[in-house]
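Per reviewer request, we include the raw input and output of the structure prediction for the construct analysed in the revised manuscript.
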Amino acid sequence: MKPRHKRLAFLMAGLVVLAAAAWLVFRALGDNLSYFFSPTEVVEGKAPHNHVFRLGGLVQPGSFRREDQGQEVVARFVVTDNHQSVEVRYAGILPDLFQEGQGVIAQGRMGPDGVFLADEVLAKHDETYMPPEVAEALEEGHRRGIAEMAKGGGK
């Protein structure tokens, strides 16, 4: 084999190894990503049913309740983007800043009964900050709600 062919074979083997390593890294990262969805996107079926994702919006006033289930305290509340709403169930300690009418992001997955089962709940950290994803989702939900009302589909 000529030296030129040896270099070419070595280069090709290196590219195959590099491609395999890149594929493994991207596959591992893909399993750990959690995408953000608004309540409207969840209701429309755009959120994955078998993968962890983030649900963000406002805690609907009057929707928060606690349930004692043995030694576990379960919180239930509704997250809305002013257009659609999704019920959330969370077992754990809620952040101190968690309140009705405030921004929230919950990470988890959809349950078979259509309730979002949260593993983690994040509340906004002060009165001026709202995560950009939540702000965009609320604005989009507000626009859709106004458009439906203009068409006569409002409640």
